[in-house]
Amino acid sequence: MDKLAIIGGRPLFGEIAISGAKNSALKVMAASLLSDEALTLHNVPRLADVDMLLRLLAQHGVDASFEGSTLRLNAKTITSTLAPYDLVRKMRASFNVLGPLLAREGAAKVSLPGGCAIGARPVDLHLKALEAMGASVALDEGYVIAEAPSGLHGAEIAFPFVSVGATEHTMLAAVLARGETVIENAAREPEIADLADCLNAMGADISGAGGTTIRVTGVDRLHTAEHRVLPDRIETGAYMMAVGVAGGELTLTETRGELLGAALPALEETGLHIEETETGLRIRKTTDRLHAMDIVTEPFPGFPTDLQAQFMAMMATAEGVSTIKETIFENRFMHAPELSRMGAQISVDGETATVRGVERLKGAPVMATDLRASMSLVIAALGAEGQTMVNRVYHLDRGFERLEEKLAQCGALIERVKE
Length: 419
Ligand code: UD1
Description:
Layout: E1 3-7, E2 12-17, H1 22-31, E3 38-42, H2 48-59, E4 63-67, E5 70-74, E6 82-83, H3 85-88, H4 98-105, E7 107-111, H5 124-132, E8 136-140, E9 143-147, E10 156-158, H6 164-174, E11 180-184, H7 190-201, E12 205-207, E13 214-217, E14 225-228, H8 233-246, E15 248-253, H9 263-270, E16 272-276, E17 280-285, E18 295-296, H10 308-315, E19 321-325, H11 335-341, E20 345-349, E21 352-356, E22 365-367, H12 371-383, E23 387-391, H13 394-399, H14 403-408, E24 413-417
Parallel strand pairs: 2-15, 3-14, 6-7, 10-11, 18-19, 22-23
Antiparallel strand pairs: 1-23, 1-24, 3-5, 4-5, 7-9, 8-9, 11-13, 12-13, 15-17, 16-17, 19-21, 20-21
Helix pairs in contact: 1-2, 1-7, 4-6, 5-6, 6-7, 8-10, 8-12, 10-12
The structure holds uridine-diphosphate-N-acetylglucosamine (UD1).
């Protein structure tokens, strides 16, 4: 298993091009199953999760070819409606093939998903939405068996709480359903509007995506389209926080500040100067030590749970005491003990972590536990004294494109150690 060796204490200067959003790319890739014509996607990040979904799509009969960051997908014929355990268990987003397969083929058998170990993460809302659209759903030996032999129909779906995956899954299934589907209490993450844009380019009729009520009027078929995946807001925020820890000045290109929601003003309050440029954002640390700051994770436009771990790493050396409340996932503080190994003073009580900023962290061997937690260890290491060895880098390869290359070109001492 590869490791990352990082020697801290070097400020970051230079430019980093932000990649397309992983969480959007995976959903628009699943959308390719809805049409027998080609879907061309631009700005697709080359990540382990993308490769994993391509393997699953290939098993359903989808032809795929990459040229740079452009991915051409063609689901002319669906050869199998089975999504096997081995291909779904590693990544939760794979579960989103269920809706499209059901909508197009009238039946699908999809393994219950895996993904990062950050909580229970059930799929009950996904299944209830499909049932409301007329599917029969049964669970058998870890598989969801769904059937809708005469097609799905429109439905009124009011989610009891906000779910990104369930909102996307419902949209993916509803585009080919008969009649109108109304999704209430929809997630408003930027990736939702991105998926709607892609589906509309394919001929779907979706309005309101990005707001709390989304309306989908079913159409008979979708056609060929091109779509550019939006920038990765989590990668954007992570590199901003790297500046917060390491110091220096970074220009992040091909991204936008508004994608960050509440994270942008929060980062500014800690002492980062953030400027919008024509092509992205420029970030500079304005004080020697950042100020402590309290945050609560919330659905978009609140502070994203996917930036919580990185924020904790940044607060580990801020001046003062910060509290970090995680309201989305119940088991998402696994990075706290790892950061503590580097000298951070963190105590966790239920859904709240209290971080007492120390002057400096010390390099140590640490273990990446999930995708975003891994990035928090990298960020902490960039400011720590001496060498940090981050084990289990495969988590990072799932979600951060060319991480060590992007950081090294800005002056970080970071190296992959192959094993
Ligand atoms: C997506 C993102 C993930 C991000 C999360 C929240 C992808 C591939 N992943 O995950 O990076 O952290 O949004 O912004 O896009 N829940 C249920 N039942 C359901 C569905 C969800 O109880 O049927 C719960 C989850 O356990 C969690 C909460 O709802 O506690 C929110 O989860 P959700 O928004 O669905 O996250 P994902 O789509 O899995």
